[in-house]
Fold this protein.
Amino acid sequence: MGLYIPYFITVKEGEKLDGNINYKTILHTFSYWPKLLILYYKTNKIYFIGIIILTLLQGVSPVISLYLTQLFVNTIVTTKDSSIEGVLIVFLFFVGFVVVRDILGLIREYIEGLFQTLLSNHMNMLVLTKASTLEQEDFENVEVQDQLKRAQQETSFRPYQIFQQILAFITSITTLISSVIFLFQWNWWMSLLLLLTPFISIPSYMKLSNSEFVLHWQRAPRNRMSWYYTHLLTHDKAFKEVKLFGVADYLLHKFEGIVEGFYKEDKNLAKKRLQLTLVFRTLNLILMGFAIFMVAKATMLKQLLVGSFISYIQAITLTQSNSQHLAQSLVGLCQHNLYIEQLFHFLNMQAAQPQPNSHEGKGIELIKIESIEFKNVSFTYPGTDRYALKGINLFLKRGDAIAIVGKNGSGKSTLIKLIAQLYKDYEGEILINDINIHDYTTESIRSNIGVVFQDFMQYEMPVRENIGISDYQNMDNDDKIYESAFKSGISDLVKALPAQINTQLGKWFPDGIQLSGGQWQRIAIARAFFKDGSIFVLDEPSAALDPESEKEVFEKFTKLIDDKIGIFITHRYTSTRFADRIIYMEDGELNAIGTHQELMHVCNEYRYLYNLQIESFQEPAAVNT
Ligand SMILES: Nc1ncnc2c1ncn2[C@@H]1O[C@H](COP(=O)(O)OP(=O)(O)OP(=O)(O)O)[C@@H](O)[C@H]1O
């Protein structure tokens, strides 16, 4: 996936990104509105329509209020003492109007609060659902990470802010139109002047908003970095090393450096905004002062009644402030639109799903794996040009128990990742049951594979979920959970826990029990067994298991894979005795394959490494006398 830069940001060679503003840009930012409106409507149609109607009503209410004030005051001034009836009627109208307006205002506040929560939940669900469809390759791509971060940042508040701006826009425009019509009775050219002056500030504010956006857009990698330092300083696993190596101050300093940088940039922009606001506010105030002076003069010359004087002054203030609001909402809307574009860009993003050699997938559902064949498979990780696997030819069939050994970085885990279809773009072919792996649906392949990776997950959840999550539809089956725990040799421990399989594991949530590294690993192995797969892979289970546990796990593993395919990757050469065949990998290549005896004869490297390990075990222990 290439670098995504919003089209409205221009990149000049050798220069940093710059905001590029023109009317086409402004118009384009509104192209996401239909999608947004559908989104609002889908969130809750009754609330959505209700809010729009209430907003319109709220928009005309100031002018109704003005009209009633004018009527009220003029009626008092012109009515004779004896006939109070007319004044009373106008007064009751006025009071009735204020009560209804306030009640509608409260209802709007109530609905808006609920709508905001629903919208934020809906957006979060959309982003999380989208993230769950991404591939491993996407998560290793910094560009995608940045986009995800930006989308996450904008999700919870930006769509609602746009909604609020739209509402503010509707309110301002209705109030403005009605107040301008009201003022027209007095002086048409002054009304137009008051209406239009605030709009001359739009281009300057728009330019500033664009610079602000570009700045925030560029911040994503630094934002992720600051998040990472926060994570290191607050996460229990990282915290051990942070304490032990005494690096808290160092990390804090780095974090501080980033946020201080943000502060300086923000301060710069805030200063520019303040300068602009000062200039335009002064201009508007001068104009308003002039308009008020004209109304006052007309009243003194008896051309206007006192009621009209009061209401025209209010109408001038109303026109002025709403015209300013309108200009500001327009700028705000364009700015929010820029952010929303990146949110929709993320939601519309295609997950990485390359098909090698233009192989068209047939969407076959894989029921059971009988055999797996690698035919001259070579692979480089995306963004690298070094082969992690080179010309691999391998045939595995049901009932095979295979051990894979080799030095660090020789490609053992990569081989498994290709079987699990975590990466799909490679040279050569992988066949399952003699059919190209790409002809099967990825889901059906993955549902057949139970893998315990080196960096397996420790879910901060109860034992039941820790084991059953690999086939969560059957998570309620206690017998199956216990059976899997037994197969991984952890059933006695589980039974001894305070609430057995319902015991919370880990220390993040209340009543959690912390397990040792090896015990966590056995839970992860049970999770792989819980899934009724047809191939099981243990990637370096020996890393956290003591020799006795390892023996137990391997013995159970070899029994279990009776009619399945079992693969275990290990650095303990002594563990390979459980395997029918051993694969020795070196520098991405399959160097040798055979039984232990065969490899001892044909593979010098294997023999050397095996003997090295055996010798180290046979060295006499130093005894202090
Ligand atoms: N996600 C990745 N992106 C880029 N390169 C990677 C990635 N994962 C692994 N590699 C590279 O691919 C090569 C093979 O890695 P792999 O993890 O398969 O080795 P391994 O044999 O399992 O090593 P170990 O015994 O240390 O676990 C290494 O050179 C490694 O640097």
User: Anything to note?
Assistant: The first helix runs from residue 23 to 28.
